[in-house]
Amino acid sequence: MIGLAALVGSAAADDWPNWRGPMQNGVSLETGLVDHWSLDPKENVLWTSEIGGRATPIILNDRVYLDCRTHHDFNDPEEKIHCREQVVCFDAKSGDVVWRDEFNVFQSDIPAPRVGWASMCGDQETGNVYVHTVSGLLRCYSGDGQLVWERSMVEEYGEILGYGGRIQNPVVDEDRVIVGFLAANWGATKGPGPMHYYYAFDKKTGDLLWVSAPGVAPEGTNCSGPVVTVINNQRMFIAGNGDGGIYAINARTGQPIWRFDMSKAAINCSPTVDGNHVYITHGADNIDSEEFGRVQCIDATGAGDITKTHSVWRVDGIKAGFNGLTVHDGILYVVTDTGNLFAFDKTDGKQLWTHNLGTVGKSAPVIADGKLYVTEVNGKIHILEPSREGCKSLSVVHLPATKGTGDDEIYASPAISNGRIVFVTRDRTICIGKPDAAPSQNTYPPLADEGMADGEVATIQLRPYETTIPAGASQKFELHCFDKLGRFIKKVDPELATSKELEGLTISGASVTAPAVGEANADRDFAGTVETKLGELTASARIRVFKATPDWKWDFEGFTGPQVPPTWMRAFAKLKPQTIDGNTVMTVAGMGANTRGRPSHFVFLGSPSQHSYTIQADVLMKEQRRQLPNIGVCANRYSFMIKGPYKKVQVQSWPPHLRAAKEVPFDAKPDVWYTMKFKVDVKDGQANLYGKIWPAGESEPEAWTIEQTDPHANETGSPGLCWYATTDCMFDNVQVTLAR
Amino acid sequence: MFSMRWIQLSLAVLAAAICGGCQPPEPPKNTTSGGGDAPAQVAGDKLKSGGARSVGEPTPPAADLKKANESAPPAVKPPTGENPPPAKNDASDQPEAAAPAANQPTAGTSADKTLTGDWPMWGGTPTRNMMSTATGLSLDFDLRQGTNVVWSAKLGTQSYGNPVVAGGKVLVGTNNGAEYRPKHKGDRGVLLCFDEKSGELKWQLTREKLPSGQVQDWPEQGICSAPVVEGDRLWVVTNRCEIMCLDAEGFRDGENDGPITDEVDNEELDADIIWSYDMINELGVFPHNLATSSPVVVGDLVCIVSGNGVDEAHLELPSPAAPSFLAFHKETGELVWENGSPGINVLHGQWSSPAVGVVNGAAQIVFPGGDGWLYAFNEKGDEVWRCDLNPKDTKWELGGLGTRNNIIATPVFFENSVICAVGQDPEHGEGVGHMWRIDATKTGDISGELGEIATSGTPNPNSGIVWHYGGVDADGSVTGEPNEPIFRRTLTTVAVGGGLVYTADLSGRVHCVDYETGKRYWMHDLLSAVWGSPMLVDGKVMIGNEDGKLTVFKAQKESAEILAEFDTVGYSSILSTPTIANGHLFLADRTRVYCIKVQ
User: Fold this and answer.
1) Which of B286, B311, B507 comes nearest A359 by C-beta?
2) Rounded to an integer, what distance in angstroms lies between the CA atom of residue B286 and that of residue A725?
3) Which residue of chain B is at minimal alpha-carbon distance from A110?
4) Contact A406 B488 (CB under 8 A)
5) Could A75 and B402 be called an inter-chain contact, meaning their C-beta atoms sit closer than 8 Å?
6) How far apart are CA B445 and CA B256, in angstroms?
7) CB atoms within 10 A of CB A421
8) Dihedrals φ, ψ of A293, to 5°?
9) Cβ neighbours of A667 (radius 10 Å)
10) Tell me: the pLDDT tens digits for A177-222?
11) CA pair distance A566, A575, nearest whole angstrom
């Protein structure tokens, strides 16, 4: 363990393994870097690529990794079907694309221009790289582009994605990869409102280790990039939260350490650590002053709510909502939303100087070789020479768009590795440097020593923390023991006990087995927890088991109160049982004075690995306020919906762009029950979609109402329900028929 | 670098190209020639006068005139100090300027205008021209030192509302950051009413947030609509997508005016709501992010843009049957007419506001549509003309990448023209923008081009485009840099006067353009984003920026000459437009409103 910690804490080569670099603070130790460059005439440019993006690239073992969208024009009817997300691996020396992996965007409101705003992260131990996609996939690739594992965090954990595209970058720490997002799912975390969770996965297997929700109800989706540090022998994971606060949690267990509340809006800026101090900004309303935005220095040695006790200094009125900060040589550098670079004395917050970069700042400055490399959104790349007294401009390059007019927008920060500085813009990737630059041999300092575990177990955790167990399969659990600072002590086999909800599963020692087809309880859903004890300490893990039988059916008879099927993801409070003329149905409340949140929603009934099934449901729309809803069902991450206001039915996979979409006229009447049936057949990478709708109770028509093909199939995906509830709408008799 | 002559020439070529080979740019018949102070028309004046018109123009239908007459008083406050006195009242030089004066001996004179100096609505008059007739403006003030600051008052923490000054009151939309009313904690939409002389809070309208959250009522953005005041009544659009008629005196007149008399908030410092119309529940309007329209009064009508917009996936209208343009009876709150244009073609939200002008004697209400078109209606709700403010080959794209833009700015009537520019949600970045001067005497589709959107258009024989300013400077002849945008996306409503048009783009570049030709005289980069609009007053142009600086230019075509710069306290962003009323400058930054003595 000690060896591993040392390795993670110190970058052996001059990699840029995460968006803030080897020390997670925008500082590189490299020297001999260029102070000016030009595309035309070409000077100090090593290579360029027409592949651009929005995220800061990472560089690992002389390879540059970027998550972005494919080059296809989503406005072109011919090309739109090919608009996808991709992970690109460039050779850092030549700019050649070593490998590229394309995959679909699905069931996400995030539009193409905002695909890939979150940076990837790399693991220097294994060479693996990680991406959090705009559909909520967490994917682990080997350095050679093999998909090692994948989690679908929308379908499995109820991740909520917003239009803004603010997705958090994952962070690798020791044997974990940790990622944050807003979610509401099932069981104790069913909602109704979402919380901002951090999910820690085993970086090699994708098994879930722990989940932590240190905050309160979030104000919005956010993209604050976390950092890991060691303070007072405790390994801390520190990030801005969707609730407007900054939180430190134990990086090994997820246990909350401290919170510092700042903003009335979600924090999108990333913290930077310098010694025992955490620097962070925000660009919205302060909780305690009328000024807008703040630069904050926090003493990170506290515990609990340190809002009022651990502010070292603060400067209000600086609107810096999207950047990351850089501390170097006693100076704190902040890029504001309005495109100004501020320099502060890091000890007392005294403003040293400002420098105008342009009008919009959304990136983080990088300092290396005595030079600051800073981008501005409207196509400007600055190289500056800072000092306490002021800032000298060495070079400003203004990049026009290569496609269309205007500026080439830049949201990414620079990345530096082995003498090369890589800039990603909307339209391209540019690598600058000296052609003869030798590989760097810098030694980056490891994180502070945590010391030895003290032997007394203070925290126990069951792992995996949450899982679904397939029919007839067993899951073995481990109990991990930590001291009060989260230092690992030992791993033991637990004796498990189940909650009432899981009675019917077979438990033996550390293992849980789900019923196989033909066995007792094979026709039941299970969702609940297993528990274990160690002395006075308790730990639990969450399990869902879907029916083993091939026919799933819910008619909702007997459902009362806010009850929803226990395994359904994101169903609670969105669907409510309602009995009409003796028949119980599930009702969605339309937008109105008492309905909170967005009108659009997906509920997932099964596992993301499912395929070859048919979903069927009865649906009904109410007409209110001149409005009608959309309502329908999902299979393989495609939706089949009635579009009430437009008198159509539609299939599609990516709402903002209607990828793979087809519509046919269908005048569904309000207050009439219709039966919808939908299946997706995948063959040779192509998906064939078949949707059918008819008045409920009438005989099913022979022909499909709508058929569509997608050359880029969603090969799998959970069965689901979907709607856009401008008005009330209802579901009944939901059935999933699995092909066997 | 380039001679002015060359710039003129190339711009004329560009304008011709935009017009698509139609007739060379030809201004409407009645225009000022450049150089003089040209008076804007005031709807109220014209309505009162029965519709002044110049010789040679078609006579408007008698019925319209009659209606205009009947509905006029006290429609729009007559001359209220926002229209420039005809400095050079030379009829031969300025036919349009002379006409109203001849017909209206008591209205439109400079003496009359200085009697009242109120600024009773967004833009001061229904024409929305960002121009004040105040004279003798002093720049001897300092916000940070307090020099000549008569009073200042806390607003919320985000203030996008523009100050309106009328009847001894100052009204500003904001959020609840100041928490003036102890019973209301946390996020609310707020309209504050201060005493003009003392800054004392007279009353506050407080509206809870919609439960749908940022989809329809973005957190902490408050009330963005600027009210229109007429006597003791005012109209405003709330964050809940309601249009309300309020008693300007609040409850302080000792009365609870109705029909609404059961206000939940009914203490002395609360707002006296007279009527309220909930556009979500009554009409199914789906406001995208926020309803923000600033109402305008014409005759008995109070007109607004509903705010109906796209869903949160930004794909399509969830409520295609809801109207976009609305006219209510100002006394009763009854919906008089509605119009569904631009139908399902709304690209994003509809956050702009209507303007009213009198064109050849008849009132026109021009509504900015969410499809990037302007739609002009008569008072009966019949469409007069429509005009696409984007070149046909532009495309709307999600997330801000595209070239087709929305209209965030408010159109401005000047003489028989409308001037307006396009932009997008600032979050979408700083793309290429376009500003147009349109001949409002035409009817039908008066866009510069015809054809499908996102294809190459064909010249429109019925084009009403007088000139186009913006697009990309392909050969660098205007900007000095090939392919540089001449004008970028904007939120800014123009100020017109002295033969010049002043505006700014979101990128913070202030532009001075010839009113006759659309030719650029100068551009000055403030290096900080501009959300508000310029104020043309006393030969000066005042404009605030996001870095909290108020810059004052000399109103001239020769060069961008900065006369003064003022920083706000704490560099608090100025997202609004400086308001001049009754010898004072009312300036709202993000968190405070200042009353500054400037005369």
Assistant:
1) B507
2) 12
3) B313
4) yes
5) yes
6) 47
7) 27
8) 80, 165
9) 8
10) 999 999 999 999 999 999 999 999 999 999 999 999 999 999 988 9
11) 12
DSSP tally for chain A: helices H, then strands E: 2, 58
- Please give the full DSSP string across B255-271, using - where no structure is assigned: ---SS----SS-STTB-
User: How many CB pairs lie under 8 A apart between chains A and B?
Assistant: 175
Closest listed residue to residue B224, CA positions, set B273, B177, B189 = B189
Angle at B265 between CA B259 and CA B270, to 5 degrees: 90
Three-state DSSP state, B571: helix
Alpha helices, DSSP H, located in B37-137? 43-49, 62-71, 95-103, 110-115
Tokens of A492: 């033991």
The gap from C-alpha A159 to its chain's centroid, in whole angstroms, comes to 8
Q: Determine the Cα–Cα distance for residues A250 and A512; give it in Å rounded to an integer.
A: 29
* Residues of chain A predicted below pLDDT 70: 1-13, 593-594, 740
Give the helix ranges, DSSP H, for B37-94: 43-49, 62-71
Task: Give the gap in angstroms from C-alpha B123 to the nearest C-alpha of chain A.
Answer: 26
What span, in angstroms and rounded, lies between the C-alpha atoms of A494 and B563? 78
* Tokens linked to B490: 């904007």
| Contact in structure between B375 and B369 (CB atoms under 8 Å) | yes
Write down the pTM of the prediction. 0.87
**Digit-coded pLDDT (tens) for A380-425:** 999 999 999 999 999 999 999 998 778 899 999 999 999 999 999 9
Of A417, A461, A458, which Cα lies nearest the Cα of A176?
A461
- Which of A264, A400, A595 has its CB closest to that of B211? A595
Q: How far is A509 from chain B (nearest CA, A)?
A: 48
What amino acid occupies position A544? Answer: R
A72 Cβ under 8 Å from any chain B Cβ = no
Interface test with B, best of A216, A267, A268, A290 (most B CBs within 10 A): A290
* Residues 448-507 (A) with a CB less than 8 A from some CB of B: none
- Smallest CA-to-CA distance from A544 within A473, A443, A453 is with A473
Q: Quick one: tokens of B70? A: 């009947």
Contact between B431 and A625 using a beta-carbon 8 Å cutoff: no
Nearest residue on chain B to A643, alpha-carbon basis = B318
Q: With an 8 Å Cβ cutoff, are A724 and B284 in contact?
A: no
Tell if the CB–CB gap between A645 and B432 is shorter than 8 Å.
no
Quick one: closest CA in B to A644, which residue?
B318
Decide if the complex's ipTM is over 0.90: no
For chain A, positions 584-613, list CB contacts with chain B under 8 A: 591-600
Is the distance from CB of B595 to CB of B134 less than 8 angstroms?
A: no
Q: B316: pLDDT confidence band, cut at 50, 70 and 90?
A: confident
Tell me the shortest Cα–Cα distance from B152 to chain A, in angstroms. 14
